[in-house]
Amino acid sequence: MGLGGTGAIAGPVSLEASYTSGIQNGWVRVERWRDTLSAFSQEAFPSDGRGDQSGQRKTFFGGDGSPHSSRFLLYYAPGWNTNVRTTPVLLVHGANQDADLAWADPNEAGGYGCGRSSCPSTGLMQTLSSDGYKVFAINFPHKNGDGYYWSEQIADAVKVIKARTGASEVDVVAWSKAASNARMYISGVKKSWGTAYRGDVRRLILLGSANNGIDLSFRHGWTFSLTVYPQCGGVINGPVPHDAMVCYGVWWSGDEWTYASDYFPGSKQLLKRWDGTYSLPSWEQDWYTTYYGGLGYYTSGPGIASYLGGSLVDTIRNAPSPSGVRVHNLCGSENDIALLHNEHTGPSDGVVFRASCEDTVGITNNGGTATVPINHLELGWTSTGKNQIRSGLSAP
């Protein structure tokens, strides 16, 4: 099945597979779609499998743990075709998340996977579906994918939802990295092949958005590199500032895990310096060389400035959002994510500085910012976070 289009309409999207039985976490239908634009390429996945699709998501991607970036999954919640609310809702997960963990089962990764030691087995999807919304969620093929790709697939998902429901507009709830990518779509930040905004988003609710960028991994010496570098026992699927470091007395070098790596094409797009606002923690190991570049005692790296040419933060902020889209910000104020070295050098949600999340430059129709006492990983599933999202969706 194809939903085609030319010109300002999104490139054709082709339905490859549909699943309607045995689906976990309360969803009633999952579809695999492919954007047939030739601009999409195969993005790289870490060779040790840490970034692969897993569980039922791998099944839905045709058994492929490292699917081509032109493909995405669209999840359907109960009541998607019968609930009475007029405007459908698209839920968009962030980096290293998926449609299940983010929206339907925060406990899927077990304890601590949701930012707390104990996680619930239901999430925002079930709440909004019970509220009468027609709820959908996208699942991206690459967990740290290029923002231009994610933005295009958000446009694709909106298009499919409109075709499925007959609605002219969709409300979008986007978390963390995806919040920036959703802003890209409505604000026209795109490649020449990308979709021009079609006037089909009514409300955009941003959860923990790095609206004015992030420099977390550069601020804290070798801390984040230790959790990533496999030679040091690291397993986290994310980029680090260091292209060389000591693990158990041995120097290891290479840019496999850096912001220059093909494993993390969307990560450097969110970078921005905050050292002029919040001082760096000079007591943390190799703090200076990690941020500014050079050889430290245990690490070496080029510094944050060497990657800022790939940042899209100010490009997005300088592209005003359409007045027809009311944008709401939901930010956290607690830097208490379990088992994580939280951002502690300024007020934050543990990942993003409050001042970055609360930044509204480029947001034309500002629906307001709610800053609540929860952390970055709790914004989409706690009762506090869910109630703020519901308020934004239902506001007159």
Verbal overview:
There is one protein chain. This protein is α/β, with parallel strands linked by helices. It is built from 11 helices and 14 strands. It has helices at 55-60, 99-104, 124-130, 147-165, 177-187, 216-219, 223-226, 287-292, 313-317, 354-357, 383-394; strands at residues 2-3, 13-19, 29-35, 71-76, 89-92, 135-139, 170-175, 201-207, 244-247, 250-253, 294-295, 299-301, 326-332, 365-372. Strands 1-2-3-4-6-5-7-8-13-14 form a 10-stranded mixed sheet, with helices on both faces. A 4-stranded antiparallel sheet has the order 10-9-12-11. The longest helix is centred in the middle third of the chain and has 19 residues, at 147-165.
What is the helix fraction of residues, given as a range? 10-25%
Beta-strand residue percentage: 15-25%
Beginning-to-end CA distance, first to last residue = 37 Å
**Count of alpha/pi helices:** 11
Placed side by side, the strands forming the largest sheet appear as: 1-2-3-4-6-5-7-8-13-14
The H-and-E topology, N to C, reads as: EEEHEEHHEHEHEHHEEHEEHEHEH
CA-based shape: globular
The residue ranges in which pLDDT falls below 50 over 5 or more consecutive positions are 1-10
| Overall pLDDT metric | 96
Largest sheet: 10 strands, mixed
Radius of gyration: 20 Å
User: What structural class do helix, strand and pairing data support?
Assistant: alpha/beta
Q: What's the count of strands?
A: 14
